[in-house]
Amino acid sequence: MTVESGPDALPATASPEVEFISLTHTTASTELEPIPSRGIDLPFIRRYVRALEDGGFDLTLLPYGSGSADSFVLASAVGQLSDQLKPIVAVRPNTVFPTVAAQQLATLDQLTEGRAVVHLISGGNDAEQARQGDYLPKTERYARTSEFIDVLRRSWSEPEAFSHAGAHYRFDGFGPGFPPYAAPIPISIGGQSDAAFEIGGTKADIFSFWGEPLADIRTQIERVNAIAAAAGRTDRPRIWVTFRPITDRTDDLAWAKARDYVERISRTFETGAYHKREKSAPQNVGSQRALEFAGRQEVYDRALWTRTAAATNGLGASTALVGSPETVAAAILDYIDLGASLVSIRGYDTLNDVIDYGRYILPLVRQELAHRKATGQRGALQANHPGALASAGHP
Hints:
oxidoreductase, FMN, alpha/beta, Luciferase-like_dom, eight-stranded parallel β-barrel, globular, EC 1.14.14.5, 13 helices
């Protein structure tokens, strides 16, 4: 791909490719329509995973929480229910010893013939960490994650037994460990604290962000890359961004749907029917930033909407992209232009949204990237679908 000057020129930062991520849900319960359940609906999981694969998604995140399904077991099931999907296992280092995690991940990688990915969560909420016996302060949790990464990689690569004596883990004569299928298993890190950036820039294969305004994401990507360069890395972490798109046939219809959705989501969180809305300020920096953006304004750039983040008190990835499929695809391309090569989109109407994204959004993004590869220039999608850029706020 060449980069030329002119209105159709590609930024030097633009990623030439993208892989799409979603999140695997275990029941039909949603933030819009909570459904009481025991937590696993196997027919639904089968249908959901098939919809992801049929829709052209590349990866799916298996999240972790103290009261959720186990991410390792679920990832193994997803790996066998699909042929191409790469399962991303969310792991908290406080819940499993690193040599054991290395075995589990390598086993998953073997069973899926090289599709395993791991996303490490240091932990951003003291109360949630304490539910499983973790009382380390946040700064120490990140130091533990750094050591966890070192042990994972040695466990997969050391040809002989080795010992380790660190601040958080100690063992003697481990290995050689059970190997991955072929290539090393990619390690993802997320977070917005200084410690998260330092570990992610220095050691991670992937650095994950929630959806933020373009100018802020640009600054954050530059920060990660600068840390990687200072560490002497010849590569850079891949950039993963996450959104909750709300789409309809036109921009106006999508905004009407979004306004309806946020009222329903607010009621759900206020009643605790899906997840209790925390009244206190969130501890993790990512949620604090989400609420700061929401407090400043509702709409940013082409399609980024923050009222959903405000409605959940910044819980998890909750910023939306609102618009027609064309507008949302154009907004995704704005982030690809900044260097994102992993884009997570999951909706509020889970299964139906996965189907719609696969039909209407993923093909548009991939068509544009194919055009860029062939011509070295942007196509017309971004210019023809300005979304909120056409006015001071949403249409």
